[in-house]
Write a structure and sequence with these properties.
The structure is a homodimer of 197-residue chains.
Chain A (H helix, E strand, L loop, with lengths): L1 H7 L2 H16 L6 H8 L3 H7 L3 H25 L4 H18 L1 H9 L6 H28 L7 H18 L8 H15 L5
Chain lengths: 197, 197
């Protein structure tokens, strides 16, 4: 069954899926190209026809992953009208995604030190855009008086940190469903900003 | 200068210091025993007289690190009288430690998947004790009516997560001093629990 599903995907996507699963289990440095090839059901030589190196694979995973995060934040922010509604939606969707997609999110968030300087710069630029989405909503709420915080930038860091860290501690056999975590975190963040709802 | 300081320490501590710096820069899997030996100023063979494997080194770092975290939480909790005072102290000291000791804390918090199952169990037991300290203060505050939260366990996870994640994003050349982060996080957490001060 799983083999069938894998086979329908383009070969380069199969390599990426295999690399995500290997990196999340074994870490970037603990994963060989042979291991990735074996999980993708192809030869190491075939892997190299799609990606020139293991680092390039990690970069592609990080680029796609962070682009998805950024799109998700934009979509979530657009779901509300007032700043508290927009931030509520952002926190809910961000936490939900980090719980449901915890395997990929762990790689995207925690294996970045293994990137080359140039690739790391590109990913950092994406992540700065993500922070900007959240901070602009917080600042809008400060302007309207619906939020209160002595340091919007540091509060923004805390908000993103909470969501991202869900990918590290979330367990599929744990006590909380992704939706419960998302709803609880939404409540915590609105209180952190003393939101007037 | 640094060599002098290193030389005064017992050899096994020098190996541990060298391993922390190597693991935090290169990751556990990216670090060779030769690299650790070179940073400790000794031969690989000399490293093996102190630790039988790289994993045992990581375990010793994790055990010492988490024991320090646990002692810090107990000390911090004892610094206040009311639950809000005790939690304020916990959050401040925990965040401060994760900023100041970010290099070691990163290894202690993020390299744990590389431990053997048995060693991981021992570390998890220590971490459960850490969670218990924080949760018992939150529950005491719920009893007295000084805190309010719909799910004390999940709030406890969020509180610890925020502090731990400081070690991941904190930069010595960044815009905030450890004390500023600690003070801001203390305020955020007291709001998360709607603390009556």
């Amino acid at each position: 069954m799983r083999g069938d599903v894998m086979a329908r995907k383009p070969a380069s996507d199969r390599v990426l899926d295999a690399a995500v699963s290997a990196f999340s289990e074994l870490g970037f440095h603990g994963t060989s190209t042979r291991e990735i090839a074996s999980r993708a059901g192809m030869s190491p030589a075939a892997v190299y026809t799609h990606f020139s190196s293991k680092e390039e694979l990690l970069f592609e995973i990080a680029r796609r992953g962070n682009e998805r995060f950024l799109a998700l934040l934009h979509r979530a922010a657009a779901q509300g009208v007032t700043p508290p509604e927009r931030l509520a939606s952002i926190v809910y969707e961000f936490a939900l995604f980090h719980a449901r997609g915890h395997i990929g999110a762990r790689v995207v968030n925690y294996e970045l030190p293994a990137l080359t300087t140039e690739h790391a710069q590109e990913i950092k630029a994406l992540r700065r855009q993500m922070v900007d989405v959240v901070r602009s909503v917080i600042e809008a709420g400060l302007q309207t008086g619906e939020f209160d915080t002595p340091d919007p930038s540091m509060t923004c860091v805390a908000v993103m940190t909470m969501g991202q860290d869900v990918a590290r501690w979330y367990r599929e056999d744990g006590r909380w469903a992704p939706e419960e975590i998302a709803a609880h975190y939404r409540g915590l963040v609105l209180r952190m900003l003393d939101a007037k709802l």
